[in-house]
Write a structure and sequence with these properties.
Blueprint lengths: L42 H14 L3 H12 L2 H15 L2 H11 L1
């Protein structure tokens, strides 16, 4: 989800080259709030979302996705994913929505 945590090579202290720069000791930084967003879902939040979903229903594109997935072939599943991706903006969000719809 976030950046990869591969360690950077140590600086050489030289002014030029691949690892140029002043030699310093690296600090261990605490995780940022943005990186832990969505990882803690409380029971209350889940319950409220469930109730809202029951009351409001599905969006038109979600209903179309459900219809495509009911057919059950690989091509229609792919079509549903493509639709979700187009509506939600990213492939990752589209995959998550497809998992929700099933």
């Amino acid at each position: 989800m976030g950046k990869s945590t591969t360690p950077k090579p140590e600086k050489t202290g030289m002014a030029a080259g691949l690892n140029k720069g002043f030699i310093v000791t690296r600090r261990e930084l605490p995780p940022r709030p943005s990186s832990r967003r969505g990882s803690r879902k409380s029971i209350k939040v889940n319950f409220v979302r469930e109730v809202v979903r029951e009351v409001v229903g599905f969006a038109p594109y979600e209903r179309r996705m459900i219809e495509l997935m009911k057919i059950g072939s690989a091509s229609t599943y792919k079509r549903a994913l493509k639709l979700a991706k187009r509506r939600l903006g990213t492939h990752k969000r589209g995959k998550k929505k497809c998992e929700q719809m099933q």
